[in-house]
Amino acid sequence: MWRKRSVWVISFLIINLLLLGTTTKTSAAKKNTPPPHIYSASVKQNSSTTNSKMKHLQQLLADTGFYPGSMTGLLDVTTKEAIITAQKTLKLKQTGQYDQRLADLLVQEAQSSPKIYRKKLSLQATAYTSQDPGCGNLTKREHYLRKGLVAVDPKIIPLGTRLYIEGYGYAIADDIGSAIKGKKIDLAYENRKDAFNFGRKTVTVLMLN
Fold first, then answer.
1. Do residue 144 and residue 188 come from a single domain?
2. What's the Cα-to-Cα distance from 71 to each of 60, 143, 146, 187, rounded to whole Å?
3. What is the Cα–Cα distance from 103 to 60, expressed in whole angstroms?
4. 3-class DSSP assignment, residue 30
5. Would you say residue 7 lies in a domain?
6. What does DSSP assign to residue 141?
7. Residue 48 pLDDT
8. What residues make up the domain containing 149?
9. Does residue 16 sit within a domain?
């Protein structure tokens, strides 16, 4: 009888010790795991910061004629290609990733006119918007129409060419038009008032690549 009771007591102690160990491990794991709402907020904040930086870089690339896309804040194929082209042009390591040094140089680039160019043209310029009759939201190369994208005659200026236009700034040849033939260029604006104020004039266009 005494032997049976001793076996039962020992078994009871062993089971309790095992349960205590499991509980301790679970508690430790819980302590090391941040609450779900804190983890989610941290990930969301980091993502927001990254997107904000990339969006700013995209705007700088657009302002300097390297990027024809929209300011999404995402590192898509078009953005990566624009970053690589800009890094190559500015003699930086071609990573295709966000680069603070590149951003700083693009700020300087946007504030000055280029000293080196491949070809200089004198063209008759007009202005247009996506709200004008017969104009759509997308360019020939299927980017959303905005300031910095211009319509050209591909026989004169190949699509995709980076440009600097007197009185307009850096741009990309991204669109075509039935009336844009020969030495003509149509400059995109985002509202009709700006396009109307530009009117029609002869401009100097520098082909940069």
1. yes
2. 10, 11, 11, 19
3. 7
4. helix
5. no
6. T
7. 62
8. 119-207
9. no
User: Of 87, 110, 133, which closes a domain?
Assistant: 110
pLDDT tens digits, 121-168: 999 999 999 888 878 899 999 999 999 999 999 999 999 999 999 999
User: Do the bridges between strand 119-128 and strand 201-207 make them parallel or antiparallel, or are there none, so unpaired?
Assistant: antiparallel
Are the C-beta atoms of residues 121 and 208 closer than 8 Å to each other? no
pLDDT for residue 134: 79
> Which residue do the tokens 């990733």 mark?
97
Q: In 64-170, where does DSSP find H-type helix? A: 77-89, 100-110
Residues of the chain with pLDDT under 50: 1-4, 9, 22-45
User: If DSSP codes are grouped into helix, strand and coil, which group holds residue 153?
Assistant: coil
Residues 156 and 97 in one domain: no
At a CB cut-off of 8 Å and minimum separation 6, what does 57 contact? 83, 98, 99, 102, 103, 106
**CA–CA separation, 143 vs 199, rounded Å?**
24
Tell me the HSE value of 87 on the side-chain side, using a 13 A CA sphere: 17
**Residue appearing with tokens 């007197």:** 166
